[in-house]
Amino acid sequence: MKILLTKEQIAERVKLLAAELNADYEGRELLVIGILNGSFIFMADLIRELNIDLKVEFMGVSSYMDGVENSGKLLITKDIHLSLNVADVLVVEDIIDSGVTAARLVEMLKSRNPRSIKVCALLNKQSRRVNSFSADYIGFEIEDEFVVGYGLDCAGRFRQLPYIGVVQM
Ligand code: IMP
Ligand code: MG
Fold it and tell me: How far lies 59's CA from each of 36, 80, 105, in Å?
């Protein structure tokens, strides 16, 4: 496993992202929606750096059946049952790759009329984008490599790694 981002580099960047969010959402009531499974560790670290009034929910969304290929389908495996029309929604994603998942998810959530909706992604692979989706907050811009760790998996494995690494295939 080649280490791409160390535990320390991630922690430092998460603090900076949180500082941005603290400033941008000051005085607002935030609904933070973590996208399972990949965002759970990032989510846990990020919200503990936030000092704004917030609620936490999780949604299960899958566009990858298994392994590394994008099936192109958005499957909602766990939904939230809160009304969004009084909430400033922040979607927390592990990574934006093709952008298909995030674009479809945002479109779906917008139809529930949130007060506002933004996306915060730990990682972004801009070179893989197939649409015009762009996240509002990005932790790190990375190359076109398949990464694991800090919540991200390869066929369900490696989520527990404290760093982000590249799987050698
Ligand atoms: P997209 O729809 O292609 O943007 O895919 C987004 C989802 O694919 C992410 O939420 C991840 O679950 C998964 N994914 C994309 N690239 C990687 C990667 O390099 N490692 C692990 N999961 C990835
Ligand atoms: Mg995911």
Answer: 6, 6, 10
97 included as an active-site residue: yes
Which atom of ligand 1 lies closest to the CA of 130?
3
Q: What is the pTM of this model?
A: 0.93
* Centroid of chain to Cα 15: 16
Catalytic one of 45, 88, 94, 97: 97
pLDDT surpasses 60 at 168: yes
pLDDT at residue number 75? 83
User: Domains of the chain by range and CATH?
Assistant: 7-143 (3.40.50.2020)
Q: Write the CB contacts of 101 (distance below 8 Å, at least 6 apart in sequence).
A: 35, 61, 63, 74, 93
